[in-house]
Fold this sequence. Notes:
Blueprint (H helix, E strand, L loop, with lengths): L1 H30 L14 H13 L7 H27 L12 E2 L3 E2 H33 L2 H87 L5 H9 L14 H12 L1
Antiparallel strand pairs: 1-2
Helix pairs in contact: 1-2, 1-4, 1-5, 2-3, 3-4, 5-7
Amino acid sequence: MTKFYSEVILYFFIYSVMGWLWETVYCSLKAGKFVYRGFLIGPYCPIYGFGIIMVLYFIEPFHNNLVLLYIFSTIIVTLLEFFTSYFLEKIFHTTWWDYHNVPFNIQGRIALPVSAFWGVGCVLVVRVIHPFVTKIVETLYNSFNIAVPAAILCIMAADTVFSLLNMFSLQKFLLDFHTKLENQSKTLKSSIKVRAQHFNDFIESETIKKNELKEKIKEKRIHEKENLELKLSMRKLRFNEKRILNSFPNMKLKRLSELKNPRDFLLKLDKVKK
Length: 274
């Protein structure tokens, strides 16, 4: 049993590394720059290791039947991909991959063209690659016994714990950032609302002043019109009348007592009339 578990661990590790290489090369070429793929720090993607282990051991009786190998491999890796995506999203509240742009997808977690590709990949691994990997695993086990599998378990376990702690820390950071951003947005909206109110008050105040000014101009024009009509309706002051008015600047007439300065008014009226 020790040999069996050691081989499983070695297979898991080797195919996880191969999966990481595939992901990194493909995504780097697609992005036009180097992209270090994988959730863990080390150069391995455990989902590929789990997928190939399941194909190797769960459907081993069908390895010699190419059609059944392809069908069952496709089903296994598709289910693995779907539930891995689902549980990762539930645990970390994060979408790790999205197939919404791929035809015939389900919730963006899996897609028919992608699953078909994984089926081809599994057949290629089982029928072509695995015989070479088997020799490598046998050599490692014969040379180091359980030392290498034990080291792999320790390294990957430590990597998993460290990566999980980092992920939770990142989640907390993003949550704090989102909260601060929302508070800043609320403060900004409140500030904008206050400024808008001040601006509206200013506009309203200026509108009132403008209307008051219009009213004053209107009243002035009416008053000027009335004065003009009054001037036109009156005769010119005679010489002696002007002299008297000029000679007695403090003179008051009872009928003109309501005027502040009847003398100036009459002189001005006569002057304009000319």
